[in-house]
From TrEMBL:
Protein name, as recorded: UPF0260 protein E5Q11_03145
The family this protein is said to belong to: Belongs to the UPF0260 family.
HAMAP family: UPF0260
Transmembrane segments: none
NCBIfam families reported for this sequence: PRK05170.1-5 (NF003501), PRK05170.2-5 (NF003507)
InterPro entries noted in UniProt: Puta_zinc/iron-chelating_dom, UCP006173
């Protein structure tokens, strides 16, 4: 019997079901980092500050179903808006697939284990603090350079 080709290899992003699309998220938490944009150049800088609703152990959102009510500027990726998020890290599954690259070996869909993203050192687990703990005027002091 020939194994079925995984959906992410046989479907375009815009052909995926909502459940398939959601499962592409590797759980790294990088899109939940507070970012600063240089108004002159448009360059985006990541900080080590995360949304107040992130569970820093799992790197998951604690209010995911109502996140847009609580954080109106929350990142919402769709096949139509993906290109708007030029700042997505190189490791992001959505970006990888959009660029024609395969999912990384540590991606939970490939490994079968949601912990592999953390074991590979790709997630923000234990490397961040809540934005609620730092006044916004001090965010520039939290710019990081370990995101790829």
């Amino acid at each position: 019997m020939i194994a079925e080709i995984p959906f992410w290899q046989r479907k375009r992003l815009d052909e995926m079901t909502a459940a398939e699309w959601e499962s592409l998220c590797d759980g790294c938490g990088k899109c939940c980092l507070a970012k600063l944009e240089d108004e002159d150049t448009g360059e985006v800088f990541y900080t080590d500050l995360v949304c107040r609703y992130m569970d820093q152990d799992t790197c998951g959102c604690t209010v995911y179903p109502e996140r847009l009510e609580k954080v109106p500027a929350c990142t919402v990726l769709t096949p139509d808006t993906l290109a708007d998020f030029h700042w997505l890290p190189y490791t992001c599954a959505y970006r990888r697939l959009a660029e024609g690259r395969p999912l990384a070996d540590w991606h939970p869909l490939r490994s079968g284990d949601p912990e592999t993203v953390h074991q590979a050192g790709v997630s923000v687990r234990h490397r961040v603090q809540s934005e609620a703990e730092v006044p916004e005027d001090d965010w520039e002091e939290h710019i990081i350079h370990w995101i790829i």
